[in-house]
Amino acid sequence: MGTLFIVATPIGNLKDITLRALETLKKVDSVICEDTRITGKLLNYYGIKKTMISLNEFNEKAKTAQIISILKSNKDLALISDAGTPLVSDPGFYLVNEAIKNNIVLESIPGSTALICAITLSGYSGQNFYFAGFMPKKSMKRELFLKNILLLRKKLKFTIVAYESPYRLIKTLNNIQGLGGNIKIAICREMTKLHQEIRRENINSSIAHFLKNKPRGEFTLIF
Asked: Matching Gene3D superfamilies, A to Z (predicted)?
């Protein structure tokens, strides 16, 4: 049996990769990734030449049997996502569970993840937090989801962390405002990248800002 290495990669700045991650990517037989173009840039930056297997949310179940077969043929593979830690709001859950069922050895190579990076800069406590990932896309489901976690937050007093795309940011902020009022929020944009921005303000100010300035990049919300 080969080993499936779950390898965290940079969330923006290509220098944010561990020595162990580089060693692993160099020694495995192939790299499983979401987008071969994005992974190709990372591998080329560090002079690593590997065959790549595309695995994303659309083909994960179809590709998993092939990947398990490769691992059973005594080949070592690395699973990475486009950015950050695999399985954290990224593909890989189905593959990892099938690997467990087939008694394949798993190794986790830790590293960057946007939610931890954002918490450290937000000014909010990271002692107890609820990670919501990407919230539901549809408005009614998103409102119900937010209503439930805001009610739970009142009882348990935890910090809420969520990811959001620029296309739904204003709708999500309006949902939070409608359910929680003019609460304090930290909005972390483009973590570790050239245009990183951290906004710490009342949610009314955030909505006003992004109505005037079109949201761009990836967002982490903390409230």
From this structure: Cobalt-precorrin-4 Transmethylase, Domain 1, Methyltransferase, Cobalt-precorrin-4 Transmethylase, Domain 2
The C-alpha atoms of residue 98 and residue 115 are separated, in whole angstroms, by 27
Name every residue whose Cβ is closer than 8 Å to that of residue 194 and which is 6 or more positions away in sequence. Answer: none
* 3-class state of residue 182 by DSSP: coil
What 8-state DSSP symbol labels residue 192?
T
Report the predicted TM-score, pTM, of the whole model to 2 decimal places: 0.90
For strand 105-109 and strand 3-7, is the pairing parallel, antiparallel, or unpaired? Answer: parallel
Q: Which pair of tokens denotes residue 143?
A: 């409102």
> 32-79: per-residue pLDDT in tens?
999 999 999 999 999 999 999 999 989 999 999 999 999 999 999 999
> What is the CATH superfamily name and number for domain 3-109?
Tetrapyrrole methylase, N-terminal domain (3.40.1010.10)
7 close to 86: Cβ distance less than 8 angstroms: yes
Q: How many CA atoms lie within 13 A of 132 on its CB side?
A: 26
Rounded to the nearest integer, the mean pLDDT of the chain is 96
Q: Which fold has domain 114-222?
A: 3.30.950
Residue partners of 53: CB distance under 8 A and separation at least 6? 30, 31, 32, 33, 63, 66, 67, 77
Instruction: Express each pLDDT in 129-161 by its tens digit.
Output: 999 999 999 999 999 999 999 999 989 999 999
Written as one string, the DSSP assignment of 71-118 is HHTT--EEE--SSBSTTSSSS-HHHHHHHHHTT-EEEEE----HHHHH
